[in-house]
Amino acid sequence: MKNSTSISTTNRIILIVCSLALLSVIFLPIWRIELDAAQYPEGLELKIYSNKLAGQVEIINGLNHYIGMKTLHADDFIEFTVLPYLIGFFALAFLAVGLRGNRKSIYWLFGGFVLFGIVAMVDFYRWLYEYGHDLDPNAPIIVPGMAYQPPLIGFKQLLNFGAFSIPDIGGWIFIAVGILLAYCTFIEFRRSRAKR
């Protein structure tokens, strides 16, 4: 006889699949910032992975120098050291809850995953804010009152550059995993209420 606190087989399978999907996020770009300007018709792209920066980082650093922004180096961010382990932890947590199949565990997993997502986005916003506002006062180009913070998500015009910020494939997987976890949590909550 099945334990009344066990989650459904379907939800267990979903959680195990989510675990494997999260593992892939460690190796895929999570976010990207695209820059468009007349002098770069092909555009410039900054790709953010869990442990590194990729894309046209050196060109972007060269342009940022003119407006006084700090250069981007992965070594300057503790997040690139910690994030792969945090994602790996959640991948294992999804797997453990999927295999164990305990309803209380899925509630804890949902709460922890939502908290992690909020903290990650707040940290990313802080990172963008600092880089866009903490400018070198001796920069070759100074526009009084101008800040160069890229948008957290969406489009923003920064002088002659259009900046577009959006999740990349790893980010979309992360969002999909969160939606699936919310679905499983809701179904299990509803099942538990129906049995009372």
UniProtKB/TrEMBL annotation:
- Is the keyword Transmembrane helix assigned to this protein? yes
Q: Which UniProt keywords apply?
A: Membrane, Transmembrane, Transmembrane helix
Source superkingdom: Bacteria
Give me the segments passing through the membrane.
12-31, 82-99, 106-128, 169-189
Please identify the protein, giving its name as recorded.
Answer: Copper chaperone NosL
Recite the lineage of the species.
Bacteria, Pseudomonadati, Bacteroidota, Sphingobacteriia, Sphingobacteriales
